[in-house]
Design brief:
Layout: E1 2-6, H1 11-22, E2 26-31, E3 46-49, H2 55-62, E4 67-70, H3 80-99, E5 107-111, H4 137-151, E6 158-162, E7 165-167, H5 175-184, E8 186-190, E9 196-201, H6 202-214, E10 222-224, E11 228-231, H7 232-243, E12 248-252, H8 254-271, H9 279-285, E13 289-290, H10 295-301, H11 309-323
Parallel strand pairs: 1-2, 1-4, 2-3, 4-5, 5-6, 6-10, 7-9, 8-12, 9-13
Antiparallel strand pairs: 9-11
Length: about 350
């Protein structure tokens, strides 16, 4: 069996590739000629240089694939037009190339995001029946990408996977938080600390994505795949465990957090480089709830998360330390923050 993965050089994509290789799949990766292949070099995969927005490249890469995992996309952009170009137009063009193949794949899996649905207005976690209400341009672009995929359901067996925020080895988005907490012995908590968020550990996500791809019940369906739900205060506790040290919490009032987000926007403007801390990221973090339920995946796919938050963050911290991204860790973690 052959699988094609787009976005394979990235954080999530490389873990999906690793999972597929572990399942005995022959894996091909469509990558830009300038892509960093660091996370793929040790894996027995076929590298296909090309561009998703080139129909010939897309068709050449997809030919003969039994499973296609469309992971590529943009998560940081300055305008709606940039998001739509990368997350919708490219997806539509790729789908057109795939449906024109002499032998279409057994499954086309699209990696979307909880952002396509938006933050949760109620205490009960969102499920797949919730009406999408994306609250920013990124979420809107992922929703439209989902819609483009699902419109193809009559011509192509498709499945949509919606992870919440994802963390784990190779992630760079949470790295500044690990570094700050380790260096200063403090854990910043935005707002009240009661804000809730669902997270996906990346190997859980990769495994859940594969389960969705191989299940006939998943054709034409949408699934949340996640690992845990916690408050920001509980996240601080888990971070203390992961780093093996006590952490003093710092409450960051909402106005101060928004100012930090604006400073991130200014740095983005001055340097031209996307910033991890931005207006959108701060606005997301201040929402009362970003929560979803993965009960449908458990029920229909047999999915079970392997990582709770403390163990998932500890595994992430150990990987960071092995790479020299953070300082070496004590052997035992603390159970709580100070």
């Amino acid at each position: 069996m052959k699988a094609l993965v787009t976005g394979a050089t990235g954080f999530v994509g490389s873990h999906i590739v690793e999972c597929l290789v572990g399942e005995g799949m022959d894996v091909a990766c469509l990558v830009r000629p300038t892509s960093d292949l660091t996370f793929l070099r040790t894996l027995p995969v076929e590298i296909i240089p090309g561009r998703l927005d080139d129909p010939a490249d897309a068709a050449r890469a997809a030919k003969g694939a039994d499973y296609i995992f469309h992971v590529a996309g943009v998560t940081k952009a300055r305008s709606l037009e940039e998001y739509l170009a990368a997350n919708v137009s490219v997806t539509e063009a790729f789908l057109e190339a795939v449906v024109r193949l002499p032998e279409p794949p057994r499954r086309f899996v699209y990696i979307s995001s909880l952002a396509a649905v938006g933050p949760n207005p109620r205490p009960v976690p969102l499920d797949e029946s919730a009406e999408p209400r994306p609250h920013d341009n990124y979420g809107l672009s992922k929703l439209r990408g989902e819609q483009a995929v699902l419109r193809m359901a009559r011509r192509l067996p498709v499945t949509v996977v919606r992870p919440p925020a994802v963390y784990g080895p190779r992630d760079t988005n949470m790295l500044p938080l690990f570094r700050f907490c380790q260096r200063w012995g403090m854990a910043p908590i935005l707002g009240s600390g009661n804000n809730e968020m669902t997270l996906a550990e990346v190997t859980d996500l990769a495994r859940g994505t594969w389960l969705a791809a191989r299940s006939d019940a998943a054709i034409g369906q949408v699934y949340f795949i996640a690992s845990s739900t916690s408050t920001l205060a509980e996240l601080a506790d888990a971070m203390a465990f992961a780093l093996g040290r006590r952490l003093r919490t710092i409450r960051v009032p909402a106005p101060v957090a928004r100012l930090i987000g604006e400073l991130g926007e200014l740095k983005w403007t001055l340097t031209g480089k996307p910033q991890i801390i931005s207006r959108r990221k701060v606005r997301d973090a201040l929402q009362p709830r970003w929560t979803c339920s993965w009960a449908k995946a458990e029920r229909e796919l047999g999915y079970k998360p392997a990582f709770d938050l403390p163990r998932g963050l500890r595994r992430t911290a150990e990987w960071y330390a092995q790479q020299g991204w953070i300082k070496p860790l004590p052997s035992a973690g603390y159970a709580a923050r100070a």
